[in-house]
Recover the amino acids of this structure.
């Protein structure tokens, strides 16, 4: 359901100007205004005319509309038709490789991983150097591994909360929950949102029939007018622990500036507003200081102590389409925004953060290894850093979009939303609870695999001479080489990584996998590059069946040089000496139960 993306998705719209014909100008205009439901109706009528001059173009534009409406089955059908027509339509400019990418995405979101992989690789071959096609092809392999894991949860549709429209963005409030929905309301004014054809988002409140039981039935949801009283989209929302402070997403039609410049279209961006409860009444909304007419700021999530606000934005300085950021409270103001970093954020979309009672971060992402669309992940903070996010697996995740998870104080049950088949509408709210697991025994902390030499050694001893891996000591992985300015895993780097996979399968250890550069280049450049290389290696290991919760990716750039080559004046080093600093290492961070 595109309501959860709102204007965060406008960067994904296919460029229309290269192939728009005069008879499809009304369609082009509706798409520029994000009125995809209306544009789809016009395109269906145009296709019914069987006009050869507009058939190819209409087919592709209709596929784009269904993609933006998140109607995966129809998007898959019409992209397939477009691919079959590709190269045979004299009235349309070739749409280029992106058509294969979007078709592969639709296949992956349908759970057709083998076919999706083929088309991701096809896309990758047509756009050398971008690597995203190859990365997502690898995710198709990861999906098969994730699906094979033993389920951690059981789920059921919370039917009393759902309608044929969408329900998502759930938050705890007083004795129940508040969520956003574009359902048909009793006060329906007849106004609809052109993107979906449904009503605008409003907030609704419901309570579990059995107190504190999120896996049971819920009361009939009722509108929550006390908190908001706007005319356009409202929600999701987050509260502090005593429900006296709220941060809410609002998209205000009358306040956003239309962008009239050539090549740009009118948008309505996500913005955050805060409100406080005093004498039983909520104050007028106060705009968050980061609100902008140039980018979105949304999906607010307060920490339990109310001193840190997490949110999602496509503001400059991020790693992908949308990133998770946070601001810390400094007195009566909020500090500067801080990006959660490449360990959390990806080249795709990270959305819907939620901080649990014990401080764990749950969020949705389509840029990390998953089953397709948005998957739900969790990461925990240890020693002042967040570990590599762990995919929550089936049945919480599916090949469709799974998002907006909240979890109870005891961590045993919760709610999330999904547009998977079998629901009542677009996005439905689902209940989940943990399933029991067998007791586990402590593991022996002595580990004796064969591994590469340690970076502190003067020379590289034979692997067989090292018979014990020690906690928190770094071990170098030989022959992990990368092309210049690249971070994808080359074929010759796979054997040492496969060796590490074997160790991880044999021994119950968790590790930090780190990447290091030599001294040349700026510190920031090297930090970013090394982080991406470490993540690439971790993603490869995960694709071989290792749980993401057992690996932290860390890029140190040039901060941990091993020799004199620090690029200071008067220090001249050979390429071999610089190569000594360019390395990939791992260290054992913990030994878990067997």
């Amino acid at each position: 359901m595109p309501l959860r993306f709102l204007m965060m998705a406008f960067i994904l719209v296919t460029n229309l100007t290269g192939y728009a014909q005069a008879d499809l100008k009304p369609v082009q205009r509706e798409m520029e205004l994000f009125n995809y439901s209306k544009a789809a109706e016009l395109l269906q009528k145009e296709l019914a005319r069987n006009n050869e001059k507009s058939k190819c173009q209409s087919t592709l534009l209709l596929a784009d509309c269904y993609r933006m409406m998140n109607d995966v089955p129809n998007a898959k059908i019409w992209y397939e038709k477009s691919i079959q027509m590709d190269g045979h339509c004299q009235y349309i400019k070739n749409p280029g490789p992106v058509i294969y990418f979007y078709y592969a995405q639709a296949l992956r979101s349908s759970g057709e991983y083998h076919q999706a992989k083929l088309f991701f690789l096809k896309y990758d071959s047509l756009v050398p150097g971008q690597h995203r096609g190859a990365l997502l092809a690898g995710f198709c392999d990861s999906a098969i591994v994730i699906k094979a894991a033993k389920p951690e949860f059981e789920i059921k549709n919370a039917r009393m909360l759902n309608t044929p429209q969408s329900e998502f963005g759930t938050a705890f409030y007083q004795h129940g929950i508040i969520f956003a929905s574009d359902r048909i309301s009793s006060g329906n004014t007849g106004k609809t949102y052109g993107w979906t054809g449904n009503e605008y988002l409003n907030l609704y409140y419901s309570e579990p029939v059995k107190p504190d039981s999120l896996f049971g039935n819920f009361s009939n949801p009722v509108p929550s007018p006390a908190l908001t009283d706007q005319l356009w989209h409202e929600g999701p929302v987050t509260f502090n622990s005593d429900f006296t402070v709220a941060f809410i997403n609002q998209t205000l039609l009358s306040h956003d500036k239309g962008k009239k410049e050539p090549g740009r279209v009118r948008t309505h961006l996500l913005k955050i507003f805060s409100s406080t409860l005093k004498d039983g009444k909520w104050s007028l909304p106060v705009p968050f200081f980061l609100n902008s007419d140039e980018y979105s700021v949304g999906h607010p999530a307060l920490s339990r102590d109310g001193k840190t606000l997490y949110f999602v934005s496509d503001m400059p300085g991020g790693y992908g389409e949308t990133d998770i950021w946070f601001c810390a409270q400094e007195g009566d103001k909020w500090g500067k925004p801080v990006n959660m970093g490449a360990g959390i954020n990806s080249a795709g979309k990270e959305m819907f953060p939620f901080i649990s009672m014990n401080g764990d971060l749950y969020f949705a992402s389509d840029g990390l290894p998953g089953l397709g669309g948005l998957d739900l992940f969790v990461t925990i903070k240890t020693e002042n850093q967040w570990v590599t996010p762990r995919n929550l697996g089936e049945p919480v995740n599916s090949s469709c979009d799974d998002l907006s998870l909240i979890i109870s104080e005891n961590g045993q049950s919760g709610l999330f939303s999904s547009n998977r088949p079998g629901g009542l509408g677009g996005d439905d709210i689902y209940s989940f609870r943990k399933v029991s697991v067998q007791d586990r025994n402590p593991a022996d902390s002595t580990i004796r695999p064969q591994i590469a030499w340690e970076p502190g050694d003067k020379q590289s001893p034979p692997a067989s001479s090292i018979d014990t891996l020690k906690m928190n000591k770094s071990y170098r992985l030989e022959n992990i080489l990368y092309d210049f300015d690249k971070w994808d895993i080359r074929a010759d780097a796979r054997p040492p990584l496969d060796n590490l996979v074997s160790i991880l399968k044999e021994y119950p250890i968790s590790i930090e996998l780190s990447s290091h550069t030599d001294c040349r280049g700026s510190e920031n450049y090297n930090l970013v590059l090394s982080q991406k290389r470490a993540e690439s290696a971790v993603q490869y290991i995960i694709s071989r069946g290792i749980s993401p919760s057992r690996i932290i990716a860390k890029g140190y750039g040039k901060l941990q040089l091993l020799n004199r080559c620090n690029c200071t004046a008067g220090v001249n080093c050979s390429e071999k000496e610089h190569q000594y600093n360019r390395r990939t290492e791992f260290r054992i961070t913990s030994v878990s139960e067997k």
Residues 5-22, 254-267, 437-460, 462-467 have pLDDT under 50 and may be disordered. The longest strand covers residues 583-591. The two ends are 41 Å apart (CA to CA).
